[in-house]
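Q: I have two molecules that I believe assemble together. Could you output structure tokens for the complex as a whole instead of separate predictions?
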Amino acid sequence: MPSSKSEIRTIVVEAAIVVIVGLGIGLAANALSPRGLALSRNYFPGGTNQAAAAPGPVQAVPGPAETNEPSEAAQLSERLRGKGLQELKLNQVEILFDDPRRQDGRIVFVDARNPDDYQEGHIPGAYELDPYHPEKELGTILPICQAAEKVVVYCTGGDCEDSDTVALLLQDGGVPDQKLFVYGGGFTAWEAAHLPVETGARNGGTDSK
Amino acid sequence: MTADQTMWKRKAFEAAAVAVRWALGAYFVYMGLKKAMHPEEFLKLTRQYEMVHTPFLLNTIAAGLPWFEAFCGILLLLGIAVRGTALTLVAVLVPFTWLVLRRALVLQALRAIPFCAVKFDCGCGAGEVYICNKLAENIILILVSCWLLSGVGRAFCARHALFPGKSGKVKAGG
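A: Yes, here they are, computed for all two components at once.
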């Protein structure tokens, strides 16, 4: 261990240099990275702190002893209500999915998961809108959502709040509240119910039951 | 003990210290880059700790920390500013371990399960982990960093100290 005062001081100065240079490099790398974060953007319009949006073990994945489902469902509903968003359950989403209006674009599904997950499988016909890089697709999707009668946004489900973020983005973009719905169960519940899944690009992949 | 034995013992000790430095460096490079490839996931995980209340600070932490971690790892691998880097890692690991522990205690209380059964993604880069394993891992990382802070592992260093004249010890080997 460092023994003399001057040795300790030297190491502290060295550490300070490492911190300053490291953070500088870190922020520069983030700025140059195509996946980098925009520092000034609020990625969680419902609140920076998770507790503000949803009390309880929201980020936690249930461990060996599962948390009870009603409590999680109640938390989800409470979270969406807190953000002024309307929630849809699986049976309601299924009805909208089978509705002929979906075929002519009056009912629109928006997938708020990351592009890799979208490619691996999504609700057939759903548009991809990454909440962390919305600039890529928002310009295209916004007019489609504005023209639609109902817009259903989903992400992974459960404690995933990306659907809320996308719904709020669309709301900010001028999509009226009454048209916007968040499917809380998300893609996990959709897949678990063995409902159709499309892989790859929108309307370009394979449907499977 | 003969002089030869003492010398071999010292060499083995130094070799072990260098191996540990490389292993720690590689660990931080791997974990840092893994997080840096998916900064939005790391952002969500950072948010769970409720450390900061403004988007700018939260984004800055989530954007800078993974690359910073990788940078520290590279410094250890190359053997540059080793003691300063080790001190930095201790200064980051200790409060982070405290945050992970605090989060785990909250989850334990909410789920009413034994402490070691708490499993969650702590944002460490390894996905979901059992809390007791994570705490043990972090303690090992802190101890290893402290060991490097003591000045061992000087062989194969590009520049062990940024200010060699002031660090008080002579570079051995490398």
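A: One point stands out. Chain B is about 65% helix and 5% strand.
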